[in-house]
């Protein structure tokens, strides 16, 4: 068989390509096989990235500000209110309407009055003395530009209404932030308090276990009655129930903290930092409660009502417009009402005009008077609401001062109470061994010791909680945050 020169060259090229492929691909495959497989050796993430980071009270406050949905909702509403200002300012611009109409119909016309309505269309042209149901085409296009050169302050008043609404929305953001951040801080303190209660309850269980073992040994040696063993066991079971209840309260507190901080984890590692140590001795004070976000938001509401009332007062006035219509029409009907189907699809007749128009809604005075009376009542109502808010803020401030004073006093007495309760519990166990006390006496002293330990552990937390309440009453968490920061630096 004879092979052509072209076929021979093609075969040689294919062999060369195969040769190059073998020498290029095989090294790459061997290199790939030498690399670790993704199935045999999965990518590992560092343990410190997976493990939840300890959460501080400052972190909880910041997370609430960043994650709580109500704050985002208030911010979005404020953005929408700011857009309302731009919308109100568009009233200063000219108004333009465009029209394009292609129709087909008859031209039967009659002389006579036609009341304004939206059912019977207008017909222009000559009057016919008989009906002709043969129709023709009509075309209409036009534009109307209308501008209000002055309005006696109405549009400015409407813009002020939009600005007042925007200011009200902005003030509401501060109220929502204060509420969310204070609840997050309070939830964090509740978690720490619940932790201390769990620790105290667990310590009580451990002590009563040791006491039960002691009573059981004495009962076996017939040095104590079997009843004492049963009583000690009952006290142990009751302490275990208290531990279960404490753990339940801790989980509930953690759930509340997760809600206010917006965390996705099911558990939170709350780091107490310096909160369980000595609280600050210098307490912040704010003299003017009118700077509280609630008071400012209510004042913004009053300003909004006043702006609406001012806009109503500008509404009962003439309105002046400059209008410039330009339009063109075409019709299949000739002047003698004969038909020419070569026309009617495009404009053939052009018109324009310029007019000055004044509109005065004279009878709107009764409606506007009723609206103004309603707005006057609304303004008085909002001012009364402002007075109520101010009284509530004064009450909160006084209550917070009382809470601080009481919490500081309890924190000062807590170590003494714990020491006395510890001595009493130790003495009760010793007296029990020498037949000088009963199991109930030991149980009562253990209960008093546990309560004292809980109060001691949470005493400083109560001081911080009182400081938080004072910050909320004053409407500013910054002094509280500064106190926590200083305490943390001092502890380090």
Order of H and E elements: HHHHEEHHHEEEHHH
What can be said about the biggest beta sheet? 5 strands, antiparallel
Please identify which CATH superfamily of the domain at 175-308 and 368-491 we are dealing with.
Outer membrane efflux proteins (OEP)
Secondary structure: helix percent: 55-70%
Low-confidence stretches: 1-51
CATH architectural label of the domain at 175-308 and 368-491 = Up-down Bundle
Shape: elongated
Q: Strand share of the residues? A: 5-15%
- CATH topology (level 3) name of the domain at 175-308 and 368-491: Outer membrane efflux proteins (OEP)
First CA to last CA: what distance?
96 Å
Main traits of this protein?
5-stranded antiparallel beta sheet; alpha+beta; 492 residues; Outer membrane efflux proteins (OEP)
Architecture overview:
With 492 residues, the protein is an alpha+beta fold. It has a domain of 258 residues: Outer membrane efflux proteins (OEP) (Up-down Bundle). The protein is 63% helix and 9% strand. It has ten helices and five strands; from the N terminus they run ααααββαααβββααα. Strands 1, 2, 3, 4 and 5 form a five-stranded antiparallel sheet that branches. Helix 3 crosses helix 5.
């Amino acid at each position: 068989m004879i092979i052509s020169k072209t076929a021979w060259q093609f075969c040689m090229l294919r062999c060369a390509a195969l040769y190059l492929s073998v020498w290029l691909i095989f090294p790459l495959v061997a290199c790939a096989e030498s690399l670790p497989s993704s199935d045999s050796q999965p990518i590992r993430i560092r343990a410190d990235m997976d493990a939840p980071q300890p959460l501080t009270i400052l972190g909880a406050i910041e997370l609430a500000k960043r994650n709580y949905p109500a704050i985002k909702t208030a911010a979005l509403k404020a953005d929408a209110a700011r857009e309302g200002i731009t919308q109100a300012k568009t009233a200063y611009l000219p108004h333009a309407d465009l029209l394009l109409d292609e129709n087909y119909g008859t031209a039967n016309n009659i002389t006579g009055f036609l009341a304004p309505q939206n059912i019977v269309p207008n017909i222009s042209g000559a009057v016919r003395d008989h009906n002709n149901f043969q129709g023709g085409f009509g075309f209409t296009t036009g534009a109307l530009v209308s501008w209000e050169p002055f309005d006696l302050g109405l549009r400015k008043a409407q813009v002020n209404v939009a600005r007042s609404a925007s200011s009200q929305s902005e003030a509401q953001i501060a109220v929502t932030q204060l509420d969310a951040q204070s609840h997050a801080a309070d939830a964090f303190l509740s978690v720490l308090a619940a932790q201390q209660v769990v620790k105290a309850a667990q310590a009580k269980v451990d002590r009563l276990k040791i006491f039960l073992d002691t009573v059981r040994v004495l009962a076996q040696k017939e040095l104590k009655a079997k009843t004492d063993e049963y009583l000690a066991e009952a006290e142990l079971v009751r302490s275990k129930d208290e531990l279960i209840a404490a753990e339940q309260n801790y989980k509930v507190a953690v759930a509340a903290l997760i809600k206010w901080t917006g965390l996705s984890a099911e558990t939170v590692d709350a780091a107490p930092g310096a909160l369980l140590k000595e609280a600050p001795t210098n307490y912040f004070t704010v003299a003017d409660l009118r700077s509280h976000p609630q008071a400012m938001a209510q004042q913004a509401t009053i300003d909004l009502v006043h702006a609406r009332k001012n806009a109503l007062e500008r509404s009962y006035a003439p309105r002046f417009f400059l209008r410039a219509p330009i339009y063109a029409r075409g019709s299949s009907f000739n002047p003698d009402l004969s038909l020419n189907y070569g026309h009617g699809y495009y404009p053939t007749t052009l018109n324009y005009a310029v007019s000055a128009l004044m509109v005065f809604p004279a009878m709107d005075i009764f409606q506007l008077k009723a609206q103004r009376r309603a707005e006057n009542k609304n303004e008085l109502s909002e001012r009364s609401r402002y007075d109520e808010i101010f009284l509530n803020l004064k009450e909160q401030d006084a209550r917070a001062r009382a809470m601080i004073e009481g919490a500081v006093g309890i924190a000062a007495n807590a170590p003494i109470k714990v020491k006395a309760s510890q001595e009493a519990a130790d003495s009760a166990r010793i007296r029990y061994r020498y037949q000088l006390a009963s199991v109930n006496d030991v149980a009562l002293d253990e209960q008093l010791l546990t309560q004292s330990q809980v109060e001691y552990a949470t005493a400083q937390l109560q001081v911080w909680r009182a400081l938080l309440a004072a910050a909320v009453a004053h409407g500013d968490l910054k002094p509280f945050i500064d106190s926590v920061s200083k305490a943390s630096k001092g502890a380090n």
